[in-house]
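User: Assemble these into one structure.

Assistant: Restating your components, then the assembled model:
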Amino acid sequence: MDPTRLMLRLYFGPVMFGPGKADLLEAIAAEGSISAAGRRMGMSYKRAWSLVEAMNAGFVEPLVDSARGGAHGGGAHLTAAGETVLAQYRALEARLREAGATEIATIGALVKPDVSG
Amino acid sequence: MDPTRLMLRLYFGPVMFGPGKADLLEAIAAEGSISAAGRRMGMSYKRAWSLVEAMNAGFVEPLVDSARGGAHGGGAHLTAAGETVLAQYRALEARLREAGATEIATIGALVKPDVSG
């Protein structure tokens, strides 16, 4: 059975980067706004901001540049560092699927087929 | 900054395999008992059994063979399938570090050094 999903989290001391933050960065890049990105992901405004603040605090440069304020909030976009982290994380996921194809297939062959679907 | 930990979870439909289950399989192989393995991991007996039951139900063959019963519980060991899944999962983690070294280092170089330690 093919894995439907690989979930990869990187821990650098207290700083974690994983699929939720990567998806949020992608949504911010697409929406141009943290609140719109949060809505797209079914996440509260508070939660989206809190993830952005954690990312901005954990890296040497902020990953997201935002102008907070105004009735609908200011715009937001990824910084160069944000684009790099996101691109490298996606590349890492692809490398895992590629370099680990044999191991993933061997484990998958032992998984009981899903008869519920 | 080097990642202190990479956490990798594989989802095959409803079946998940990740670091907690891999560590439990290793502890069972070392201890020869599910309850001793659970204690070693600071996990309740109930939790350890529930993880073993989930693994045994999710794969075409059980991953753990156990003789439940007796005052101290029966012994337990990994089946051939259990040994294969564990070994392939550890190999996959190693491949990820190896094949993804550049991406991991690029992200790590952007992480703020941990000044708390």
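Chain B has a mean pLDDT of 91.
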